[in-house]
Amino acid sequence: MSSSNSPATPTHLFVISMPSVATVKLNHDNFLLLKAQLIPYFRGQDLFGYIDGSIPKPPKIISVSHPETSVVSERVNPAYSQ
């Protein structure tokens, strides 16, 4: 029996890690500094469109039709949680 040594490749990898996250309350004194740090990060991760509204949020519920019976049912959209 042969075995494969290749690691399993995940089909979806949605891990976002920020190198250093500090829990500092946002105020007038630190707003510009945090903005200058976070905007490039979100742009680099292709997430800034969700913040500024240029990328719309996917619908929470989608209609799916069964290929054999043509029955339409509503399901939770997997893209919504991503």
Total of DSSP H or I helical runs spanning 4+ residues: 3
So what's the overall shape?
elongated
Question: CA-to-CA gap between the ends?
Answer: 39 Å
Strand order across the biggest sheet?
A: 1-2
Strand composition percent = 5-15%
Which residue ranges are poorly predicted, with pLDDT under 50 across at least 5 consecutive positions? none
Q: Which bin fits the share of residues in helices?
A: 25-40%
For the residues shown, what is the average pLDDT?
78
How would you describe what is shown here?
This protein starts with 30 loop residues before the first helix and ends with a helix. It contains three helices and two strands; from the N terminus they run H-H-E-E-H. With 82 residues, the chain is an alpha+beta fold. It has helices at residues 31-44, 48-52, 78-81, and strands at residues 61-65, 72-76. The mean pLDDT is 78. The longest helix has 14 residues, at 31-44. It has a two-stranded antiparallel ribbon with strand order 1-2. The protein is elongated, with a radius of gyration of 20 Å.
What structural keywords apply?
two-stranded antiparallel ribbon; 2 strands; single chain
Which SSEs are present, and which pair or pack?
Elements lengths: L30 H14 L3 H5 L8 E5 L6 E5 L1 H4 L1
Antiparallel strand pairs: 1-2
Quick gist of this model?
The chain is of the alpha+beta class and 82 residues long. It has helices spanning 31-44, 48-52, 78-81; strands at 61-65, 72-76.
